[in-house]
Each structure stands twice: as C-alpha cells, then as structure tokens.
Amino acid sequence: MSAVSWLLPLVVLLKVNKTFRNKFFSVVLMDFLTPLERRVEPFRKRAFEVLQEHLSNRKRSTPLEILEIGIGGGANLEYYPENSNLTALDKNETFSQYFEDNKKKFSHITYKKMVSSMAENMEGIEDSSMDVVVDTYVLCSVQDVKAVIKEVKRVLKPEGKFLFLEHVAFPDSHLGAKVQSFAAPLWKLFFDGCILNRKIAEEIRKDGFPNVECETKYPSDLWMFFRPQVIGIGTK
C-alpha cells in the first residue's frame, strides 16, 4: 500500500509535468543507473572504434567537426578522436550541469557550442557543416525518426558519417519482442519517451542512409527488454 501511495503521484507528475519529467530522467540516468552504464560501456567504445576505422584516411592535423545529438551528460566524450571540434545538442536542459562538469576531463576536444533543440529541427546547425553526427541511445526517444534522419543528412558534409548506437526491437518471432511490448508503456513514461521496440537500423536505411554497416549484439547481462544493441555507421 505504501508503494502505491508514492508511485501514483509520481506517475501523475511524469505524465502532466514536462519540466519534472525532464529533471527526473536526467537525475535517474546520471545518478542511479551507473550499473547499466557500465554494461553498455563496451558498446560505446566499439562504436567509436568503428568510426575510427571509417576515418582511417583522415588527416589528423585537420579538426574533425562533430555534432552529437542528445548528448546528455557527455558519456561518449572519452572516446572522441583527437582534434575534435564538438557541437552538442540536447533538448533536455537539465543535463547541462552534468555535461559542463564532465567536459572538463577531456582536453582533446574543442567545445564550440551547445544547442538546446529537438533533433527533428536543428535550425541552429548549418547545412553541410559536420564531418560526423553521433547518436547514442537517442533515436529511441525522438518523436519523429524520419525527421531526425533528414536533419542529420542536411548537416553532414558530402561523405560525412552518421554513427549510431541504439537499443532496438527483438525480431518479431522472439520471446523478447513480447517482453518489450509488455514493458513499453511504463518504460516510455519513466524514461522520457523512450520506445523499447523501434527497428532503428531499418528506419535509418529506409529514410536516407541505404548503405549502413551494422553490428547487432544480444548481451546476456542486460535486461531483456533493453538487450538488443545495434552499432551502425552510414555515409552521406
């Protein structure tokens, strides 16, 4: 009974108050989900190894212009290539202090600006201005994946790279797909709109990056509804 007495008001607040929802999500993600973050760290590292492989011919003396969408607290910063110029974008301003504290640790990155915006409409970013766009665990939460992909293509230079790491849907025939469908409504509420069972790689291919290279992994130490992980890179 005591659990209901605090859970119900929390659910109501999350549904009706966007400011509270944003703050709740940033605090939970940054302060309470450290064990989950440790488990996905190898996938972050691998994603940036894939990026380095695709940038093997890059002149290291030339700064690499990178836009990271949904940067949150900056969990990817330690993996950035040397001589990177970073433009950060996030719609949730409650992450800003976490990001400001974290970025001081990584002197190999030049920080250009922070843009407070949805990824579906990045009007603060110029056309054909980025060498790389980075997305980790963001497309699961956006309102319109197709609009985001259109914006990513707009801001990338010709031959620019779109690097993504996402949790995705199990194949339809797998038991995990039913688990994801069952958990999806509450997960979406508590994790700021995150949708568990999007087929993100397929959407990226369909909406503008037909030649995407992907690695899909099913780590047994992750919760089943969060287990399928896809690492991919597309070229404009």
TrEMBL record:
Pfam families noted in UniProt: Methyltransf_11
Domain (Methyltransferase type): residue spans on this chain: 67-164
Alphabetically sorted, this entry's keywords are: Methyltransferase, Transferase
Q: Does the keyword Zinc apply?
A: no
Q: Does the keyword Methyltransferase apply?
A: yes
Give TM regions. none
List this protein's GO terms for biological process. methylation
The record's annotation in InterPro entries points to: Methyltransf_11 (IPR013216), SAM-dependent_MTases_sf (IPR029063), Thiol_S-MT (IPR052356)
> Can you say what this protein is called?
Methyltransferase-like protein 7B
> Organism source for this protein?
Caerostris extrusa
